[in-house]
Amino acid sequence: MNPYLKQYQQTEVQTASPEKLLIMLYDGAIQFLNKAKVGIANKNIEEIHNNIVGAQKIISEFMNTLDIKVGGEVAQNLYNLYEYLHYRLVQANIKKDADMVDEVLTHLKDLKKTWEEAIRIAAREKIRDEEETEEENSVKTA
Length: 142
Known about the structure:
The protein is mainly α. The protein has helices spanning 3-15, 18-42, 45-65, 68-95, 98-141.
């Protein structure tokens, strides 16, 4: 790999917001699974295994970072979904099954879209709240 590209990627990860990191992880898992599908088509056992395991590690990270106490039922449901996706990838790796990989890919793409929309909504609300606070502060000082 180009050393400048590697440095750029490291800097991008180190300076990314938690929201951006989440999306980057989804992108990584999706890329791993697309590469696994190529491996399945080419019957390349090592490529299949390495890429499915890469996606599994990302999904495991998602599971490990969920706080069920704070997130309650939503976090528990998300954990259960991640657990299922992880299981399906174990099965896909054993059976070298592209359909199982596609199933997980569909879920990950949908989850990524949902998170992207949630991030956009949160950003809009933050801006609105900041504007309201600024407006309130200017009224108090007037």
